TrEMBL record:
<feature type="domain" description="EF-hand">
    <location>
        <begin position="134"/>
        <end position="169"/>
    </location>
</feature>
<keyword id="KW-0442">Lipid degradation</keyword>
<protein>
    <recommendedName>
        <fullName>Phosphoinositide phospholipase C</fullName>
        <ecNumber>3.1.4.11</ecNumber>
    </recommendedName>
</protein>
<dbReference type="InterPro" id="IPR001192">
    <property type="entry name" value="PI-PLC_fam"/>
</dbReference>
<keyword id="KW-0539">Nucleus</keyword>
<keyword id="KW-0963">Cytoplasm</keyword>
<keyword id="KW-0472">Membrane</keyword>
<dbReference type="Pfam" id="PF00387">
    <property type="entry name" value="PI-PLC-Y"/>
</dbReference>
<dbReference type="Pfam" id="PF13202">
    <property type="entry name" value="EF-hand_5"/>
</dbReference>
<dbReference type="InterPro" id="IPR017946">
    <property type="entry name" value="PLC-like_Pdiesterase_TIM-brl"/>
</dbReference>
<keyword id="KW-0256">Endoplasmic reticulum</keyword>
<keyword id="KW-0106">Calcium</keyword>
<dbReference type="Pfam" id="PF00388">
    <property type="entry name" value="PI-PLC-X"/>
</dbReference>
<feature type="domain" description="EF-hand">
    <location>
        <begin position="170"/>
        <end position="205"/>
    </location>
</feature>
<dbReference type="Pfam" id="PF09279">
    <property type="entry name" value="EF-hand_like"/>
</dbReference>
<keyword id="KW-0479">Metal-binding</keyword>
<dbReference type="InterPro" id="IPR011993">
    <property type="entry name" value="PH-like_dom_sf"/>
</dbReference>
Amino acid sequence: MAYLLQGRLPINQDLLLMQKGTMMRKVRSKSWKKLRFFRLQDDGMTVWHARQAGGRAKPSFSISDVDTVREGHESELLRNLAEEFPLEQGFTIVFHGRRSNLDLVANSVQEAQTWMQGLQLLVGFVTNMDQQERLDQWLSDWFQRGDKNQDGRMSFGEVQRLLHLMNVEMDQEYAFQLFQTADTSQSGTLEGEEFVEFYKSLTQRPEVQELFEKFSSDGQKLTLLEFVDFLQEEQKEGERASDLALELIDRYEPSESGKLRHVLSMDGFLGYLCSKDGDIFNPTCHPLYQDMTQPLNHYYINSSHNTYLVGDQLCGQSSVEGYIRALKRGCRCVEVDIWDGPSGEPIVYHGHTLTSRIPFKDVVAAIGQYAFQTSDYPVILSLENHCSWEQQEIIVRHLTEILGDQLLTTALDGQPPTQLPSPEDLRGKILVKGKKLMLEEEEEEPEAELEAEQEARLDLEAQLESEPQDLSPRSEDKKKKPKAILCPALSALVVYLKAVTFYSFTHSREHYHFYETSSFSETKAKSLIKEAGDEFVQHNAWQLSRVYPSGLRTDSSNYNPQEFWNAGCQMVAMNMQTAGLEMDLCDGLFRQNAGCGYVLKPDFLRDAQSSFHPERPISPFKAQTLIIQVISGQQLPKVDNTKEQSIVDPLVRVEIFGVRPDTTRQETSYVENNGEAVQTGQRRRTWSEARSLTYGDLSRLLIHSVSSPVKC
């Protein structure tokens, strides 16, 4: 099976040494450091490890899972062990998604360089793979997992085990029949291309063949005109279908003669359907397609809550990795809770809890390095400042010295602004959101009685509305400490995003300015939407709002962000370390517009005179029907916590999220004991065109697989 990819890999000394294997120290913490033998498999695409050379090995990771490789000095953990291990001998493997990083320490600088350079070469190779190469790699990964004795061939017993790993339960006699048909060498085992043919016979889908034959005149191929008909009728590609058909045939037809004749075989057709080009996501929404010159308050902003946490809110780990991951996935508003630290250095952690602590300067350095790797649109630092005057000055020094020109310190044109600047105006800039000392013109506006009333209500309001910090108070913190005075130098760094306490919509209209922003707990925001949703919409049309999860979500769970987007709330902060439906929704919204982290709100949510009420929407538009046909499902991952021999029966659930009348779901039936299939059919749902604007087009449609109870 190794030949599928190995023939295309460059001959490289680093890769040859990696295939011989290396003893390295795997590091999980200051106390957990164990020697392991790591070896790149012959396929060049998977790394296995064992306790010692020649020992029983098991898979460690696939190259396709690797996002990047970092040097030792970039790892928090390895930096903390610098006295024990030279940083030059360490490196970190960073994976896609939420998988924890893998920190390794080699026995020499040369060995570390060999693995770093070799892994980077392989990651680059995988990134540039075409569709066929990705399928080859996927099959190679499964072959490696099924080939239990690692002899490069698979017996029927190993095939049966592999079918369970792939979540497929099949009649043993039928499975043996497919096995014998694929075993053209009659060796009693499957090798290389024989395994590929076995997989093809295993995954044949009559419903896909039926769709193919519907447009193919001979049932063998799609001519250019037939493929254009398919793209227009089924894929709704419109006028661009002719040009697109030529591109897709050239991209997915495996036969060179087919490409020359401009025809698409069944294999090419299936390759197209399973590719990104066959994605339901509207391709016109992939690039930067929205107007980016409107004020900041006219956009939804990808936002994170307690960004430093990579676990729960009480005992979880604080790490700069939280900022790196959030920024790399397009987050544009990160939160920093800053407290007085030892030796005069401010620290970041969830105050009065058992969460670990990290230096503020390390957080700033990570933000400066990763702020604009994914998007060059502005990043907002939401500062929760709990520091003394002296350490506030240290905060200012780190921000200005580390971020340099990236940090916005003055108004763009040097003149008092009349509205918030646009994302386009602020490209490449980092903005500070926080408390600000009152300006002279602001002091003259409130009447004396109102000022006194505000002062009296301040402590109570702070308890109700500020982000909760006293979740698990320690005895030494129970004594009331004097309120810290805001340092003028730190106040001066807040240019456009002054944090203010919310009292009422009337008070905000009469006494606040467009550059002032309020934060709302999810409970408070839900209450306001229910009681005065139209006023909340109007408020968010001219002023920024930030919503954050309830303090009761100590497990770092998330709320449904759609509720707050419906009211036009811009910064709906998520616990990005926690996967689930809620983060799927967030990722879905911000996937569009080049993933830049800013999505323009619908026009009726940008109108300060809007009468739209998210709880009681009224639409003059005729209802429309959305029809989605679920054809088939393949290569569905198995649920992580299921046993090897168990079979889960997946189904597809289609959900629409928006205002309440639009929110609905439909799901397919499931096929008993077949993890590779779902029952097909159409699901219909009618909704209002006007209300659909609250969630946009199909880019906001979430389709995900779920499972019935495990059958063992």
